[in-house]
């Protein structure tokens, strides 16, 4: 079944001057992929990975242009216009995405950058956005385990820390004491489940707990040094932001890691950075 507002792999069934038609199943039939989106050399029978949405005439259409967000996902998007129907945001496609007035937590204005959830409206079948994203979270039981790595996106900043959407399905919190690096609304990260509370709330960390985070980072540092010819201009004197940019970890964990590698005789620590030690 075709998934509107998401990527689908479809077969080319007809070639025309203005593009190609892809088979969308018995219910939908053939779907046009306009000429400007057709990959060079496309032939009958080829399978193409395309995004399916509605064009300005509300007809189902395909594109190879990558949208900024798909149905079921969260993203921070820019408002590019307002009409009597609602606000329109740029989601990377020719036709802008509508955020109806009924789906706005506050009245949106042109130029705003807003966090929203994209979904398919059941009544109209149209793809729309909503800034009332909390109602899309925690509608199913969470089935995570402590220390599990998950994909998250920051959806709100609170006094306690950073509220995130976990795997686009559940809400969680990265406490300020667990945060480091440049964090902002809309940023996508990989995090680790730290605690599953009895009340159903989930707290997360940006790094694994205990010894595991050091062991993983040690391996990453050594592999990075090998790729960079044995030297890297990072040390315990580097800023937290520089360290986070390179390894997505805190400065404290990085210092502990390179200290361990030094004690093992695997690296040298200099004023300029760290050097892979030649033990041959």
TrEMBL record:
It comes from the Bacteria. Residues 70-132, 145-207 form the S1 motif domain. One of its GO terms (molecular function) is nucleic acid binding. InterPro entries: CvfB_fam, CvfB_S1_st, CvfB_WH, NA-bd_OB-fold, S1_domain, WH-like_DNA-bd_sf. Pfam families: S1_2 (PF13509), WHD_CvfB (PF17783). Belongs to the CvfB family. This is S1 motif domain-containing protein. It comes from Photobacterium profundum (strain SS9). The gene is SO1868.
């Amino acid at each position: 079944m075709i998934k509107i507002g998401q990527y689908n792999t479809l077969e080319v069934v007809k070639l025309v001057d203005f593009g190609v038609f892809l088979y969308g199943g018995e219910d939908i039939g053939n779907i046009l992929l306009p000429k400007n989106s057709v990959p060079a050399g496309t032939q009958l029978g080829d399978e193409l990975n395309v995004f399916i949405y509605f064009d300005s005439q509300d007809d189902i259409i395909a594109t190879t242009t990558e949208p900024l967000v798909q149905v079921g996902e969260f993203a921070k998007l820019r408002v590019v216009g307002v009409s009597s129907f609602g606000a329109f945001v740029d989601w990377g496609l020719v036709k802008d995405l509508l955020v109806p007035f009924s789906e706005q937590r506050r009245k949106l204005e042109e130029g705003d950058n807003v966090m929203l959830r994209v979904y398919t409206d059941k009544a109209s079948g149209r793809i729309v956005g909503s800034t009332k994203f909390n109602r899309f979270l925690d509608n199913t039981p969470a089935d995570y385990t402590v220390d599990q790595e998950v994909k998250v996106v920051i959806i709100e900043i609170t006094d306690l820390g950073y509220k995130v959407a976990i795997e686009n399905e559940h809400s969680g919190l990265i406490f300020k004491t667990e945060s480091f690096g440049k964090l902002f609304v809309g940023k996508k990260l990989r995090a680790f489940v730290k605690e599953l509370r009895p009340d159903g709330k989930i707290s997360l960390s940006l790094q694994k707990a205990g010894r595991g985070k050091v062991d993983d980072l040690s391996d990453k540092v050594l592999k990075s040094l090998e790729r960079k010819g044995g030297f890297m201009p990072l040390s315990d004197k580097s800023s937290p932001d520089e360290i986070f940019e390179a390894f997505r970890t805190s400065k404290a964990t990085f210092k502990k890691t390179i200290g361990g590698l030094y004690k093992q005789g695997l690296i040298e620590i200099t004023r300029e950075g760290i050097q892979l030690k030649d033990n041959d």
